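Reagents: none. Just compute today. Transcriptional regulator protein.
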Amino acid sequence: MADTAPTCIVAEDEALLRQSLVESLQRAWPQLSILAECEDGASALEALAEHRPDVAFLDIRMPGLTGLEVAAAAAQASPATRIVFVTAYDQYAVDAFERGAIDYLLKPVQPERLAATVQRLQARGVHPDATALATLLAQLQPARLRADALPPLTWLTASAGRETRLILIDDVAYFRADNKYTTVVTAEGEALLRTPIRELLTRLDAETFKQIHRSTIVNLRAIAGITRDDTGRGTVRLKTRPETLSVSAPFMTLFRHM
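Predicted 3D structure written out:
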């Protein structure tokens, strides 16, 4: 760990658990500076890219990007960051973490276990290599990560003026955050969904819909092409819409195999 005060981010989508972990960290590691408290995978990835902390405590099961996906992207966004996963998983998943020699905390986090993790971080750091993360991603597929979630949406109802429209999920080009609501964009136009984008993420098929910005989710089947500029940011061209969509630099790592 560096001579300067160590830094970290905490990512946990449940507010009470996030607050509890932050308070426990403050007791176990008073010198640690917590730079960001994140409630989903997108904000965690952006915080990693912005702050490049010494340590990231990542909940595995979060809306949108999982903790594993954030950690995989962090290999480029903040390669020096040490990763500690926080999980409520069963023994199957715990075995996978231990085989990969990747540090984790089980919920509810016990003071003794947190103290041991802090000691390891202070002594040498914990940072999984790309191979270990790839193995974990293969073993703990999104379906397993979200085993207790509701099935993905196949259609939704949204408002366009005084009209209520029935929209098939396959017809959606992208979703855009609109204050507390979400704008649904199709080839035919726009409609308003009275659901926050963060909540919507939990009901979308993760294999088809990807978050490309904190405020934007795109249907991969609607993409015509992706370009990257010199700053690392990307631009998405759509098949059925004239506008382009911005991809923030941290999220470009999610498209490196496309």
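The chain has a mean pLDDT of 86.
Action item: order primers for follow-up constructs.
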